[in-house]
Write a structure and sequence with these properties.
There is one protein chain. α2 links the parallel β3 and β4. This protein has a 5-stranded mixed sheet. By secondary structure, it is α/β, with parallel strands linked by helices. Helix content is 41%, strand content 32%.
Length: 115
């Protein structure tokens, strides 16, 4: 298991956040929630989440992904997912949440899709 880490890059109007480790209840979810809420509060509502480094996902992690999507959309933006590991894609699919998200293979595809 990897330690939980995030990194942030900005491409024009789009914020790209890469996430590594387990997106699970406790400090990991809380840390990402605070980062994302701060971005949205400052008007950054075009967000790409690169989940390629996620090795575990629980219900609180899933809840955070859905909440961020709703927050971005209600503020006129969107939250797109990239580099989904099998465990994340399967979990979101099982919960019937995968169709809610715009999913891309690469960050640059997701950034470009904002137009």
């Amino acid at each position: 298991m990897r330690p939980f880490e995030t990194s942030y890059l900005k491409f024009g109007q789009v914020s790209v956040i890469a996430v590594q480790g387990g997106l699970v209840l406790g400090p990991p979810v809380e840390s990402l929630r605070l980062t994302l809420e701060n971005l949205i509060r400052h008007g950054e509502t075009r967000i790409v989440l690169n989940l390629g480094g996620i090795d575990r996902l629980d219900s609180s992690g899933i809840g955070l992904l859905v909440k961020v999507l709703q927050s971005c959309k209600s503020a006129g933006g969107d939250c797109k997912l990239t580099s989904l590991p099998k465990v994340v894609a399967q979990t979101l699919n099982m919960c019937r949440l995968l169709p809610l998200f715009d999913v891309h293979d690469q960050d640059d595809q997701a950034v470009a899709s904002f137009g």
